[in-house]
Amino acid sequence: MLVYLTAECCGYPISIFFIVVNEFCERFSYYGMRAVLVLYFRYFLLWDDDLATSIYHAFVALCYLTPILGAIIADSWLGKFKTIIYLSIVYAIGQVTMAISTIHDITDANRDGTPDNFTFHIALSMLGLILIALGTGGIKPCVAAFGGDQFQEHQSRQLNTFFSVFYLCINAGSLLSTLITPVLRAQECGIHTQQQCYPLAFGVPAVLMVISLVVFIAGSGMYVKTDPEGNIMWSVCKCIGFAIKNRFRHRSSSYPKREHWMDWANEKYDKLLIAQIKMVLKVLFLYIPLPMFWTLFDQKVSICHFSGLLGGLPDQMQTVNPILILTLVPIMDRLIFPLIQKCGLNFSPLKRMTVGMLFAAMAFVSAALVQIEIDKTLPNFPSSSESQLKVVNTYSTTLNVTISPNEHLLIESFGVQLHTSKHTYSTISCMFVNGYTADLNITNLDSIEPSATTNYTLVNQGKRDFVLRHGEQWCEFSRKFGFGASYTFLIPSTVFSDDCESITEVEDMKPNSVHMALQIPQYFLITTGEVMFSVTGLQFSYSQAPKNMKSVLQAGWLCTNAVGNIIVLIVAELGKLPKQWAEYLLFASLLVAVSIIFSIMAYFYTYIDPAEIEAQVRKEQGLEPEEMEKETLEMEEKDEDQKNEQGVKQTKI
Ligand SMILES: CC(C)C[C@H](NC(=O)[C@@H](N)CC(C)C)C(=O)O
Asked: Where is the region Disordered (predicted)?
């Protein structure tokens, strides 16, 4: 048996350092670019909101689909090392192209600060995005699997830690870039005219991608590299096709049953290949329910968006997830999991993933509870069979209003009555009602004619000052505004004589009384779920894959995320339940149901050691002792060459 003793530090192969730094830089590059992409579409290319978000989602979807391509190239053709290098070059070219497309001066011949040839900028940025999607998705399954390849069999504990550190690097990179690139965009730069600095916001991620590639190449001499054994994916497809055909050819009950349907390929295909396909299919089957987790996970940013707790600032919430990941991964790894082990409980990977799903479901239950609290603070909106009428009394005494046939309202002088009745007509409520006898000018608003109203105007939360003017006369007043509130100001004819004192404030909608801190449990729960589910899934996909299909199984794992995202888009298209909290509960219940199904599937799953199974099949095939000896000798020679080439120490035990 051959064991590589690569250069080590604290029990870890040194080559791992280059891989995790590479991942950090790559994720910085990817998330940094994504953080300013919609802004670039909206304010540089001047696209409308719909087009900008559609192209953004199409780009993200493409990034999720390309891992399959990268995995096939790596496992069937180039090997992981070369695939990472070539696709990283494509990726870096894409980022540079994208950064160049944001330089407005290139086509700004008339020097007015806006590009003259939008087609050029659009074409260049679309080319950049396609290259980026190809690169980022393509290398994704290869980098994690290549990192795993650096460990030897006795380093299983270190291998698990590696995947946790790998996940930390993903989130550290994304956190920093999500904070930094929007700040870079806010700077001003340009040759002829100073504009928002998109070239810097996209240029820095491009530089980080180049650094990521350089770091990866720098570690080249230290990596354990395995070459693909021929076009494995093609062999897999042919073998599966033959098994299905052969099974149908022998469907009569006179033929004895075989243990597994893949055994119908025994007549033509190598037993080892069949065993490897069985391992992969078993895991892929287990993955079928998993997209539901990602469906909930990918909606979590929307939770705060819909609830409006942060006044709709989902961008900032993007940083909460990586911050929590950076805190929770070490806590789980160093404290919670060892503690559970000490208690004598077997918290196997599939159990962890099930618990992770339950945590995500709890996050949605928590979101539903918060939503119910928010709903309590909202006014009663008219239903589809009702409309709302608002009557403002600017007359000097109380008025009796009758709405035919028999509905009555009593409105005090300078009072407002909001009235909901079936099948009446609706009026639009207002922000300022001018009861003064002449036109009025109010800060930041158009002038209002007598007895007229303004539209609702959005103002920032906190204390705001208003100045009212008519010719030489003026007065000012201040009011404090709460998030989500809505007010109407009634201006009487005496407004200037009493220095704005007589302005009446009517609260149409109460401010949010639900504290934004209530969102923290949701984020905490979903991120705890992510750590248990996603980090474990990454480790599991590597450990259960046969040696020659490690990238393919990583791509299969990433596919669960892609399908989850597609479900999010379908759900968004299909429409929503009338009550937001009911929708959250529906998703939570679906995930609980899915986790029950998954736990049953997991119960019947037997953990394997692919290397052991492969050795056993070889033995059964009669490769031992002579042929295995021969294979071992061939490997020894190959390793000796590698050792001479890369300075890798090799020992035979
Ligand atoms: C499919 C995931 C393993 C993708 C992973 N995302 C994360 O780690 C998130 N916590 C990052 C956050 C910024 C959404 C990735 O590789 O980016």
From this structure: 619-653
